[in-house]
Amino acid sequence: MKVWIPLALSLFAALQPLVSTAESKKAGSPNVVFILADDLGYADLSCYGSKEITTPHLDKMAAEGMKFTDFYAAACVCTPTRAAFLTGSYPKRVGLHNGVLSPKTKSGLNPSEVTLAELLKAQGYATACIGKWHLGLEEAVLPLAHGFDYYFGMPGPNHGASDLYRNNKLITEKKNVDRDQLTRRYTEEAVAFIRQSKDKPFFLYLPHSAPHFPLYASKTFRGTSKQGLRGDMIQEIDWSCGEILMTIKQLGLDDNTLVIFTSDNGQAGVAAQPLHGGKGSSWEAGFRVPFVARWPKRIPAGAVSEQFATIMDVLSTVAPLAGAQAPTDRKIDGKNIWPLLSGKPAARSEYDAFFYYVRDGQLSAVRQGKWKLHLRVPSERWAGKLPKEALLATKPKTAPPWLYNLNEDVGETKNVAEENPDLVASLAKLAIEFDRKLGEEMRPAYGANVRK
Questions:
Q1: Residue 97 annotated among the catalytic residues of the structure
Q2: Helices (H) and strands (E) in the chain, counts
Q3: Cα 190 vs. chain centroid, distance in angstroms?
Q4: Beta-carbon count within 10 A of 89 CB
Q5: Most buried residue, 13, 164, 337, 406, by CB count within 10 Å?
Q6: What is the C-alpha radius of gyration for the chain, rounded to an integer number of angstroms?
Q7: What's the rounded Cα separation, in Å, for the pair 23 and 88?
Q8: Residue 106 CB burial class (10 angstroms; 0-12, 13-18, ≥19)
Q9: How many CB atoms lie within 10 A of CB 377?
């Protein structure tokens, strides 16, 4: 894994020092906009190779900033990744690793957790969450209880539909929510928050409900892509990102605003070539997602990082830029990836290994460097969607493990476990020990129905 940066950008990076907390305070705490798509896959943006979906605004954002090739969600479904983003921790560490919260859940993200919003609010930031929450429905665990000054959106899951809330007040019952207008409404609310907060540092968390099923899009975007309604939804998300970036520029905030775009897990029901699998699986397409970051004069333009990073890193990266720091009274799994984002030539991923926890909350695979070991069946659901050469890996005559060299075989088609028994044993031992220790260190989620 490496970082590729054009020659001119290498010179730029070499001359630009790493932004420290002190420098950040001196320059003014940056505004932070974190945009999260729902079920958007690795190859769903044209800047990541899509031929059926056009995303000019995100493509421009990548051209003006940096994109990662090896960026991972913390889980292959919604709730766990969202908990990981806000806390900087593996979902199991905060007790939200078992599937997704149901439309009638009494559970949620524990108020005792320290979120990125709380850290930034303590530094004088205006904070807002606009969009899908999916971390609990009780007032004690809604966004306002986790450091956000303002909330507008649907606190429940997409698959069960959800009511629409403003702060803690129900404003539209789910049966009356016009889902076709949801992306547009989220965007209008986000733009309004940015305009209202322009005179102080702000943190905007914009978790879209799209392109998660059920499929919907406004009339303007229906029929505009080559991938049907799902593609139309993604193109509307791209429009939304364009509106956010245009507003920031119009307000003169461009040079002091970090904008990040990514997804909570892989796509559902659509192959993400060259990856295999998708949402709910430990195949690469279940976890590996697009990640684009833009901050003019801070993040080198047109850069591509092949270093490993995850959504857990956002807290540990953004907090120091805002003059805060990640909590020290508890285990935080995320790393500070600012050296990677700022284009520091010698920067490398700080991860020794990454552990894949799937829909049922169980450890399913481990990655260390270029090697990935599956400890359980990645997902039978995807067997029929794989090329013939991959079927032996999906339905082997013997039980796992399956070992893949991701540098040479990112599609996970050639199981090389038999040729590397010592490596298999080493990775298996590493994974089992990590899971044992993580289980001992688990912090409880809020409410009932919490399983280990």
A1: no
A2: 12, 15
A3: 19
A4: 27
A5: 337
A6: 21
A7: 23
A8: middle
A9: 18
Q: Is the peptide bond before 155 cis (omega within 30 degrees of 0)?
A: no
The full set of domain ranges for the chain reads: 3-17+27-341, 354-441
CATH tag for 3-17+27-341 (out of 3.40.50.300, 3.40.50.360, 3.40.720.10, 3.30.420.10): 3.40.720.10
The identity of residue 15, as a single letter, is L
> Does residue 40 contact residue 58 with C-beta atoms inside 8 Å?
no
Six-digit token pair at 394? 């999906």
258: exposed, middle or buried (C-beta count within 10 Å: 0-12, 13-18, 19+)? buried
pLDDT, tens digit only, all 452 positions of the chain: 333 433 333 333 333 333 333 333 434 699 999 999 999 999 999 999 999 999 999 999 999 999 999 999 999 999 999 999 999 999 999 999 988 999 889 999 999 999 999 999 999 999 999 999 999 999 999 999 999 999 999 999 886 668 999 999 999 999 899 999 999 999 999 999 999 999 999 999 999 999 999 999 999 999 999 999 999 999 999 999 999 999 999 999 999 999 999 999 999 876 678 898 899 999 999 999 999 999 999 999 999 999 999 999 999 999 999 999 999 999 999 999 999 999 999 999 999 999 999 988 999 999 999 999 999 877 644 433 433 333 333 444 445 789 999 999 999 999 999 999 999 999 999 999 999 999 999 999 998 444 43
Q: Three-state SS for 312?
A: coil
- Paired tokens of 229: 């309604």
Structure tokens of 117?
């919003």
Half-sphere exposure of 166 (CA within 13 A, CB side): 6
Active-site annotation holder among 97, 134, 208, 374: 134
**Tokens, residue 398:** 């013997």
DSSP lists the bridge partners of residue 288 as 72
CATH number for the domain whose boundaries are 354-441: 3.30.1120.10
Which residue out of 57, 76, 78, 374 is catalytically annotated? 78
The secondary structure element, H or E, covering residue 172 is: strand 169-172
Active site residue 78: yes
